[in-house]
Amino acid sequence: MSRIVYVNGRYLPYAQAGVHVEDRGFQFADGVYEVCEVRDGSLVDEKPHMARLERSLAELAIPAPMSMAALAHVMRETIRRNQVRNGLLYLQVTRGAGPRDFTFPTSEVERTVVCIARPLAPEPLEAQATQGISVKSLPDIRWGRSDIKTVMLLPACLAKNAAREEGADEAWFIDNEGFVTEGASSNAWIVLDGETVITRQIAPAILAGVTRATLIEGLAREGISLVEQPFKLVEAQSAREAFITSATNTVMPVVRIDGRAVGDGRPGPIARQLRSKFHQFAAISVG
Ligand code: PDD
Predict the structure, then answer these.
(1) 206: Cβ–Cβ under 8 A, 6 or more apart, which residues?
(2) Residue whose C-alpha is closest to residue 163's, from 172, 154, 151
(3) How far apart are CA 122 and CA 129, in angstroms?
(4) Ligand 1: centre distance to CA 225 (Å)
(5) Which of 141, 187, 189 to mutate for ligand 1's pocket (most ligand atoms within 8 Å of CB)?
(6) Distance between Cα 184 and ligand 1 center (Å)
(7) pTM of the model
(8) What tens digit of pLDDT does each residue of 227-284 get?
(9) Whose CA is nearest to atom 8 of ligand 1?
């Protein structure tokens, strides 16, 4: 079966799908995106992903290309046409194409909409979760609006590559005061003695992760206490446990930070518990 991509109203074979050379997403990173987990053929946390997309568009004054319900339909149809059972869904909306000009187009320009669905075998991720991942810290050189999910991801690409060069799986960004902001493509969490879970509070410095929000509801259900506040790298290194969250990873234990073992260097019980229950939390959260 050939892969099908949605581009501006059409479902096209992967090799024929493309956007204009002067798309503002290409020239200025003038666009936003969402990544959702696909599980058993359905979108996980669809509503909060659509709500965040709507917010990202509004924050950048990009008019929505269609209603959120219509966009969600495109997403589901892309999953269906590609027969994805487990994998991810990528949706990107840019301000559109036009002669290169920093200021926004004055006339009405059609937004560019691209939707891609990709199967992802669960086994490698499960194997990684059993081992836990390692993280490298780097200065947070991103702009001041990391709460908007823009396609301006060069700092994240640089950070992830620097991490990979040192054999690490994810990068954690550190702000000017030495606090962890978040991962290059994930939210960062630690577990202190007494089983208190800590993650940074929502602010312009971080993305309001959908997985993060679902997990916070789950923590309450599990009776695990949560404190939303910044933490330093040394606190993370001496924490009992650490983990990251994202749509593609759900809950992924972190066992090394800058080469230092977290806890006993193995995935901790809280992270394992939260990972195993995550989709239950997501299902309750939708209903
Ligand atoms: N990234 N922080 C950043 C900077 C991210 O890029 C992401 C997600 C998250 C977690 O958000 P969520 O739980 O909604 O996935 C936090 C996606 C997966 C990506 O860019 O591929």
Answers:
(1) 146, 147, 181, 182, 187, 200
(2) 172
(3) 11
(4) 23
(5) 187
(6) 8
(7) 0.97
(8) 999 999 999 999 999 999 999 999 999 999 999 999 999 999 999 999 999 999 999 8
(9) 185
